């Protein structure tokens, strides 16, 4: 029961407590760190091993990010624009024509989108669900449920952003299992994906080439 209260805290706290400039991540990571310690574990138990951070891991992370950018830019965004009337994406318009803000936001993307979100969702929540679900399909179900939570976590975006987050959760959740729980790979993949997306927004190429 306490484990799932931690999950609720990690998913809800960032939206309910208006801490400045992503500092909620520090508070949540501290909670998760001490909770893992309480259970006799550490971040390395969810895949953040020093030996896992290799050139191969970096290469897989970058290549998988490029593949996901291609999917979003060439398939997902054109498809929803074809099927629906989609409002302009404005959440990160503040970085346009402002290089210093772009750099600051990319830095936050590596720390929040890459490191924080992957530790919380793929590293902790997905592993927790996999352990608690009694089924031969526990891996698939845990990936699906974690991805749905990841989509809801992005509720501040429109429905198309939420769906994109669910799909991204599925992508990184499957990637995490395919690389034997080496969390560094989805961390790098997620961070590189966010970086490329921010650059596309900055150059007004997001959603089209």
Features:
209 residues, mainly alpha, 7 helices, globular
Describe the structure.
The chain has 209 residues and is an all-alpha fold. It has one domain. It contains seven helices and no strands. The protein starts with a helix and ends in a 7-residue tail after the last helix. Pfam families: Rce1-like.
Could you give a short description of this structure?
Helices cover 71% and strands 0% of the residues. The chain is mostly helical and 209 residues long. The radius of gyration is 17 Å and the shape is globular.
Instruction: Note poorly predicted spans.
Output: none
Shape descriptor: globular
Distance between the termini: 48 Å
Helix content: over 70%
List the helices and strands and how they pair.
Blueprint: H1 2-16, H2 24-38, H3 55-83, H4 99-132, H5 138-153, H6 159-178, H7 184-202
Helix pairs in contact: 1-2, 3-6, 3-7, 4-5, 4-6, 4-7, 5-6, 6-7
């Amino acid at each position: 029961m306490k484990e799932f209260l931690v999950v609720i805290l990690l998913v809800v706290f960032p939206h309910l407590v208006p801490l400045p400039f992503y500092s909620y991540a520090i508070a949540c990571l501290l909670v998760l760190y001490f909770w893992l310690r309480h259970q006799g574990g550490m971040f390395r138990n969810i895949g953040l091993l020093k030996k896992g951070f290799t050139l191969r891991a970096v290469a897989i992370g970058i290549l998988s990010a490029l593949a996901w950018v291609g999917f979003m830019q060439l398939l997902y965004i054109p498809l929803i624009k074809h099927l629906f009337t989609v409002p302009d994406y404005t959440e990160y318009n503040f970085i346009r024509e402002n290089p210093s803000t772009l750099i600051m936001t990319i830095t936050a993307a590596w720390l929040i989108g890459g490191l924080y979100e992957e530790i919380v969702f793929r590293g902790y929540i997905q592993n927790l669900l996999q352990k608690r679900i009694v089924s031969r399909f526990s891996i698939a179900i845990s990936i699906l449920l974690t991805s749905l939570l990841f989509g809801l976590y992005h509720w501040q975006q429109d429905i198309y952003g939420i769906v994109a987050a669910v799909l991204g959760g599925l992508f990184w959740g499957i990637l995490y299992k395919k690389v034997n729980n080496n969390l560094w790979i989805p961390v790098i993949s997620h961070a590189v994906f966010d970086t490329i997306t921010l650059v596309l927004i900055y150059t007004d190429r997001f959603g089209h080439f």
